[in-house]
């Protein structure tokens, strides 16, 4: 799926600001691959991380957290999620995102900004631990929160996922920048260091992060749940659609065709020099880097 003529990302300016990116442990979960991608066997289950990230702006030092991973107490999830966890996706949280931050010298109550890729249960963590943070989400998150659980007993989205009095819903008009293969991006700091990408397809309001990781042209793309396996980015595998016995179909992406296009755009970055693409559930990367310097208080090294 990687493009034969990838679109370049903008070159750095003199004194270019950039982002120090550190991975955060935030739980491990079982993923039945048949639910996510074509070509997987019914019994093909992998244990993968639900990664979160620390993002520090250089030179200002302003700090953000991207995603919060899993919460330890599954009984607080909507009933439909509890059923999915019990039957298909058991998980453990050996180290929570809060503990990961503290290990790196950051107290959760000192975090000022949390950006959530989306509102699925394995990314929302426990917002109560971040009592002084503003929560930044895509505008599309508003409607699914309003129709979430418990108002809608069948919803898999918790209405209490984020504190509404400290929520910032990025409007459609905020995504007014095109960068590389992405037509809709928000230049978060206004200096070309951090872009929030309107990554349509998976769930309303789904955001990805494109960040410079050096002043000399390195980048990282944090793809959230745009894809659940790297083979989907290369085109080796496609998005799974499951035919249920009742005649209905099941797809983990709310809008499959939009998700296909988003995956294609992300896949094109694989051919761009000095760009690191990382999925939220990237088990291969995790196995290579767990307990290493890519995790706070260390940082993910820039691609050179």
Automatic annotation (TrEMBL):
Keywords in alphabetical order, please.
Answer: Hydrolase, Metal-binding, Zinc
Q: Which SUPFAM superfamilies match?
A: Metallo-hydrolase/oxidoreductase
Q: Name one GO molecular function term.
A: hydrolase activity
Coiled-coil positions: none
Q: Does the keyword Transmembrane apply?
A: no
Can you give the residue ranges of the Metallo-beta-lactamase domain? 49-281
Please give the cofactor(s) recorded in the UniProt entry for this protein.
Zn(2+)
**Entry's Gene3D superfamilies?**
Ribonuclease Z/Hydroxyacylglutathione hydrolase-like
Pfam families hit by this protein: Lactamase_B
Write down the InterPro entries for this protein, in alphabetical order.
MBL_superfamily_lactonases, Metallo-B-lactamas, RibonucZ/Hydroxyglut_hydro
Q: Which family does it belong to?
A: Belongs to the metallo-beta-lactamase superfamily.
**Entry protein name:** Metallo-hydrolase/oxidoreductase
* UniProt source species: Trametes coccinea (strain BRFM310)
């Amino acid at each position: 799926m990687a493009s034969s003529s990838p679109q370049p990302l903008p070159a750095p300016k003199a004194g270019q600001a950039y982002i120090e990116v550190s991975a955060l442990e935030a739980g491990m979960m079982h993923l039945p691959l048949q639910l996510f991608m074509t070509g997987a066997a019914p019994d093909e289950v992998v244990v993968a991380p639900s990664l979160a990230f620390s993002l520090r702006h250089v030179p200002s030092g302003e700090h953000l957290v991207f995603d919060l991973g899993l919460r330890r107490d599954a009984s607080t999830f909507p009933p439909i999620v509890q059923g999915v966890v019990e039957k298909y996706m058991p998980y453990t949280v050996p180290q929570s995102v809060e503990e990961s931050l503290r290990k790196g010298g950051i107290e959760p109550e000192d975090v000022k900004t949390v950006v959530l890729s989306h509102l699925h249960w394995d990314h929302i963590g426990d917002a109560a631990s971040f009592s002084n943070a503003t929560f930044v989400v895509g505008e599309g998150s508003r409607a699914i929160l309003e129709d979430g659980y418990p108002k809608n007993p069948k919803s898999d989205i918790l209405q209490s996922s984020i504190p509404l009095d400290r929520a910032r819903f990025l409007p459609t008009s905020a995504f007014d920048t095109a960068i590389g293969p992405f037509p809709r991006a928000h230049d978060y700091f206004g200096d070309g260091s951090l872009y929030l990408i309107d990554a349509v397809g998976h769930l309303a309001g789904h955001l990805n992060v494109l960040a410079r990781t050096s002043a000399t042209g390195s980048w990282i793309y944090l793809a959230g749940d745009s894809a659940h396996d790297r083979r989907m980015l290369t085109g080796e595998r496609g998005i799974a659609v499951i035919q249920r016995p009742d005649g209905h179909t099941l797809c983990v992406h709310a809008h499959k065709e939009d998700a296909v296009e988003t995956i294609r755009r992300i896949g094109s970055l694989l051919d761009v020099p000095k760009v690191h693409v990382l999925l939220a559930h990237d088990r291969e990367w995790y196995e290579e880097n767990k307990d290493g310097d890519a995790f706070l208080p260390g940082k993910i090294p820039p691609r050179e």
